[in-house]
Fold this sequence. Notes:
The chain is low in regular secondary structure. 9% of the residues lie in helices and 10% in strands. It contains one helix and two strands. A hairpin with a 5-residue loop joins strand 1 (2-5) and strand 2. The chain starts with a strand and ends in a 28-residue tail after the last helix. This is Spore coat associated protein JA (CotJA). InterPro entries: Spore_coat_CotJA.
Amino acid sequence: MKQMKSKENTQQYFIGSSCIPQETTIKNVRLAAAYVPYEILCTLFTPLEALKKGTAFPELYSPYKKEENVEPKKRGKHYER
């Protein structure tokens, strides 16, 4: 392992031949593949219920819960114009 000192007097370590320079082209390599697990569809909301809730799938339903009477210091910052 080589040790080099930079201008800021910090040390940088380089691991010899195990690093691949960015200019090197690697051939015959699959770069990325998405993994999407299969979902099991158990139930559906009725059409009217799905319109009310915004989704036909109960697993995706997540209603917004508004917090009442939140203390001002816990709210987001407000800036004056």
